[in-house]
């Protein structure tokens, strides 16, 4: 392990240690009032602690991936950088949510009353738009990891990315709507998700099979994992932002577990699968500056050698005449 890798590993350990021992008073510093409006359904101290715990784990994973990338040449780190970006953005988002920031109060469609709904009494609920900003940035990168693994062409990648962004934006708009019309945006998002699932399960799997058994195995493992985890996100949305069925603390647990599985666990699985797969097999070989210089010198040497051989032939021909 090189010095940079050791530094990243040390920082990851410190991040987990600090995240588990820090005296958290975020909800008292950043209160439940935004834009002059108080929210009645919000995370408690426990929910904030949970968000910070997930933040620490994802952040440590990000640093661990950066450290692992130094065991590969720079030209072979494309997937490492994508994993790091995914976990890095998610770390920032979870820090914001743990700090009780990045949210806005939205009136709920269904108000829960009575003893059976203890902890759910309130007319409005905090909606974390920071979560959707995270998804808007990271989910295309997650899909890019899978689609590059399958060797899909760029037009297909752009199409799947578009569907993914429609899915995320529809979920955000629906979460910010207080009437039943939110379910229309929910339906748009589900249709877009169905398109993403089709491209992964049918088109991507078929293309990955052509690249070899190891590539196909890696794609199927990570693809099935992604499809299963992503299928649960609309369920969580329906129970949280949509139906106002579970508390914001329970929402934190539900989304936190899903994001943990969809980002750190996914990244580790795909990293393990890609470790012995050359990016050049996927059409992702990028030449370094040293290689370009070497190729240029070799080409120049061949050109000079061929020129010298040609001159020798002409000279000998004139001498024999």
Features:
single chain; 321 residues; mainly alpha; Rhopdopsin 7-helix transmembrane proteins; two-stranded antiparallel ribbon; two-stranded antiparallel sheet; 10 helices; 4 strands
Question: How do the helices and strands line up, and which of them pair or pack?
Answer:
Layout: H1 3-21, H2 26-29, E1 33-34, E2 37-38, H3 45-69, H4 78-98, E3 103-107, E4 124-128, H5 129-150, H6 154-176, H7 182-209, H8 213-242, H9 248-274, H10 289-320
Antiparallel strand pairs: 1-2, 3-4
Helix pairs in contact: 1-3, 3-4, 3-9, 4-5, 4-9, 5-6, 5-7, 6-7, 7-8, 8-9
What is the typical, i.e. mean, pLDDT?
85
Please tell me the CATH architecture by its name. Answer: Up-down Bundle
Task: Sketch the topology as an H/E string, one letter per element.
Answer: HHEEHHEEHHHHHH
Strand content: under 5%
Describe the main β-sheet briefly. 2 strands, antiparallel
CATH C-level category: Mainly Alpha
Low-confidence parts lasting 5 or more residues at pLDDT below 50? Answer: none
- How many domains, in number, for the residues? 1
Helix content: over 70%
Number of strands: 4
Structural class: mainly alpha
Q: What general form does the structure show? A: globular
Tally of separate helices? 10
CATH superfamily: Rhodopsin 7-helix transmembrane proteins
Q: What is the CATH topology?
A: Rhopdopsin 7-helix transmembrane proteins
